[in-house]
Amino acid sequence: MSRIRLLGPTDELQPVLHRIQDLGLVHFVEIAETEALTQLVLTPQQERHLRNVRRVAEDADTAIRLLGETPTLPRRTAESLTLPRAALIAGRTRRALKTLEDRRRQLEEERSLILKFQPFFSTFDKIATSRLDLDGIRIFYLVLRVGSEQELLRMRAALRSSLGEGFELFSQPSASDESAMILAVSTADAQKAEALLSEAGVQPLVLPDQFKEEGAIHMIQRMRARLKELPQDLAEIEVERNRIANERGRDLARIQASLHDHLATIRTMEKAVVTPRAFVFEGWIPSPARAELERRLRKSFGDKVEVERIAKEEWEGELAPVVLKNPRLFRPFEAITRMMPLPRYGSVDPTPFVAVFFPMFFGIALGDIGYGAVLAAVSLGIRFRSKPDTKLRAVSQIGLACALFSIVFGFLYGELFGDLGHRLGLHPIIFSREEAVIPFLGLALALGVVHIVIGLCLGAVKLFRGDKRRAIGRAMAAIMVVLIALALLAAFEMLPGRFFTPLVIAILVAFPILIVAEGILAPIELVSTIGNVLSYARIMAVGTASVMMAVAANRMAGAFGGVFVGLLFALLFHLINFVLGVFSPTIHMLRLHYVEFFGKFFSPGGVEYQPFRHWSPREGAV
Amino acid sequence: MEGSWLYLSAALAVGIPALATGWAQSRIGPAAAAILAEKPELTVTAVLLIAIPETVAILGFVVSVLILLQGGG
After folding, report:
1. CA–CA separation, A96 vs A356, rounded Å?
2. In this predicted structure, what is the pLDDT of residue A111?
3. Residues A125, A220: Cα–Cα separation, whole Å
4. How far is CA A190 from CA A133, A137, A193, A197, A202, in A?
């Protein structure tokens, strides 16, 4: 990044900003005021104009939201709408779309209300055929769960004892697991019936307002008619909305983009300091793009605008904005790095290491072909439902990488839904996690040594630019972790025993160097680092728990009396294990990265690079 | 009898750290929930803080497994 200072005449301020917005690469920063340079203050007229722009932009945003999908932004042309014209279009369209949306909601509510009464339609046919005289009687609409015949009989008996034969009860099972009932009583007995229903805990359905005034038979007829009309009414709304989208969509998109651009320009103007005749801006630009900025400004404004490079001695690197740049394969993993504050400018971006180690650790912990395949299917499902360059897309890509490693390690462990693989003839290639707990622990700790040593080396590289002594100390800590690990292997005879003494001597030599380089607290730091390595035992612990749960799920299939019940329980248990098997390693692997690995080199506190550029529907205002 | 002591010590090796972890998490959890109510952007930090005491239980689990394996259980 290069820090630049822009100087030019005040009357060219807006045109200069427009050129810079076209280039879209300068990240502006606020500058402190001095006696001669004061911050730009908007006049009351400009303030009023700004309020109007905001209001119209809100109208355009709401209208586009109500349209449902973002219209394609037309290519920028010289022709642009005036603010009053834009206000007229955005306001009218928003109001029209709001009216349509209100109408659509009203119709949807009406339809869901009528659908509630649909089970009563056939019951009413019964009433019609029974030639019941509906004058002077009160109708109750009731819904009971199917299977509660006893309740129905009890209610009929209670009604008979209270009302004699002065009632009719029609019931009809509906398509769902409910039974629709209609109770007809004379108006005089209505209160008694109401009390009985209340005692029985049956809540009658309340009639929709628009049908309250009508007779019961007529109401059902109208409901039937409305149910047929409603899809047509809703389709008409959709047609009208499409018409508005075709007629006004492009204009709205243009208004939205140009007003948000305008608002961004004003926000940027507030970062300038001015004299009565000149303006000064300061900001950051990627070094290779500086020449292009100078060329464009010279072409448009000649010598009137000056781009000055501020020497590195005048600014601190920590203030420079940060942009994460990684190969396409690693880019989804930036989402994991971004969950922490951004790394400072000039420090190490851990994304490539996260992209390698996170899915690998996850795969080693989950390590099952079956669960890996299910995770891959879920991730693919999310991928097809997500839009490019969104967090959800990144999650699906991370999920796919984790699934791939889970399948590979599942194959190496010979696991398919736990020990089901063994029963189907799948054999472990490296070891069986059910039995070989110690080799699994050894693998987890070995990975811990590798991961921590890489972290310490990155820390040493970072420190080397500034504090060389501490950099040597960090490198020495990395060497000591390796020496201690090798000495332990020699002590437990996993390496030839003759290596033990030279390794111990090497540790004893390295130790004073570490103290000289890192200070008196270095031994405590070293013990803490060894504790960090031991923390990688969680890969083994989470993995063993996962495989044991899967084995338990498989045993359930034979543990219950019936095969069907057993299978059902086994499937349920596998489902629970899958959810735990994805959630738990994710949390633990994140922790291993953020606490153990990042702790060795990561310098948080970077400012995100947000260049001043044109508004886009995907990225929002910049 | 020796077998019983072996199993008891393995159970204690994982049980006591698990209780300690649970106690620590019971203190961290509500604090994390309170933080998230005001600053949802600290979700990752909150989750990490809750996960940190689990190291104790995990190391307890490893020691427990080692006890069982060393004792031939």
Report:
1. 52
2. 86
3. 10
4. 16, 8, 5, 11, 15
Which residue does chain B place closest to A532, by CA atoms? Answer: B55
Other Cβ atoms less than 10 A from the Cβ of A128: the count is 12
By the 8 A CB rule, do A482 and A464 touch? no
Q: What residues of chain B score a pLDDT lower than 70?
A: 1-2, 72-73
pTM strictly above 0.80? no
Task: Give the count of beta carbons closer than 10 Å to the beta carbon of residue A320.
Answer: 20
* Residue A538, burial from CB neighbour count under 10 angstroms (0-12, 13-18, 19+): buried
- pLDDT grade, residue A74 (50/70/90)? low
**The CATH number of the domain where B31 resides is what?**
1.20.20.10
A155 and A174 part of one domain: yes
Candidate from A541, A590, A595 with C-beta closest to B62? A541
- Do residue B62 and residue A535 have CB atoms under 8 angstroms apart? no
Residue A76 falls inside a structural domain: yes
One domain, residues A413 and A436: no
Cα–Cα separations (whole angstroms), residue A453 to A356, A456, A530, A534: 15, 5, 11, 13
A351 Cβ partners below 8 Å, 6+ apart?
Answer: A324, A326, A330, A331, A333, A334, A336, A337
Residues A374 and A512 in one domain: no
The per-residue pLDDT for range A46-62, each reduced to its tens digit, is 888 888 889 988 888 88
Contact A19, A297 (CB under 8 A): yes
Q: How far apart are alpha carbons A371 and A358 in whole angstroms?
A: 17
Sign of CA dihedral A521, A527, A528, A529: positive
Mutate which: B39, B61, B64, vs A, most A CBs within 10 A: B61
Spatial CB neighbours of B63, under 8 Å, sequence gap ≥ 6: B13, B14
Query: What CATH number corresponds to the domain at position A170?
Result: 3.30.70.2750
CB-CB under 8 Å, A538 with B58? yes
Q: Which residues of B touch A544 (CB under 8 A)?
A: 65
Give A434's DSSP letter: T
Q: Are residues A447 and A530 in the same domain?
A: yes
Residue A97 lies inside a defined structural domain of this protein:
no
- The β-bridge partners of A182 are A141, A170
Distance CA(A191)–CA(A196), nearest Å, equals 9
**Same domain for A335 and A413:** yes
Rounded to whole angstroms, the Cα distance separating A67 from A334 reads 33
Residue B20 structural domain = 2-70
Q: Where are the alpha helices (DSSP H) in A83-214?
A: 83-117, 119-130, 149-163, 190-200
Indicate the number of domains in chain A.
Answer: 4
Looking at the fold, whether A558 and A530 belong to one and the same domain comes out as no
Confidence of residue A144 (pLDDT cuts 50, 70, 90): low
Which residue segment(s) compose the domain that A530 sits in? 432-535
**Distance (Å, whole) CA A544 – CA A540:** 6
Contact flag A538-B47 (C-beta cutoff 8 Å): no
Say which of B48, B58, B59 has its CB closest to residue A594.
B48
Residues A256 and A270 in one domain: yes
Domains held by chain B: number: 1
Residues of A in contact with B61 (CB under 8 A): 541
Same domain? For A425 and A356 the reply is: yes
Structure tokens of A435? 């039995």
Structure tokens that stand for A422 in this block: 């063994």
